[in-house]
Amino acid sequence: LAAKPEVGRSNVYRINSSKEHHYTVSLSERDSLLRNGWNSEGMLYQSTTEVTSTPVYRLYNKEHLFTSSEQEKNSLVKSGWKYEGIAWYVDSRTPYIFRFYTNGEHFYTASLNEALSITNKGASSEGVAFGYNQESTNSVYRLYNGTNHFLTSNINEVIQITNNGWKYEGI
Question: Burial code of 90-112, b = ≥16 C-beta within 10 A, e = fewer?
């Protein structure tokens, strides 16, 4: 299913049913879902086990939502979401995790190519949910619309403008 995590790290697993995706670091939760007909999509990324790092909060309201924003967590709780606790922790080794809303659920990916693909299929980007730029602090992304090139260092902007016909050409 996934390689054993490095010392001080936990695998974050992505599992899906025919209706939704789920994310967990718990092997027992993952295995229970797999026994009940869910499918493993493998490891999303490795989180840190350091509790002094940034927490990722898990909330539920007919679907799960994960955020590292305490303000967003508190706002969602006030609007009726159930706070289920800290799901895992992120640190400077955690890649950008992109969040989308599609088909009635929130979807997360660490892959820029998957992020661009799901955006092109109509998913609504909610930007970077949590994580850090793994390329460098000075990454510049290049896009092309058939006539002009566009350069940006804002990964959220890359995802948004690919929806408008721009082609991602890389860093």
Answer: bbebbbbbbbbeeeebbbbbbeb
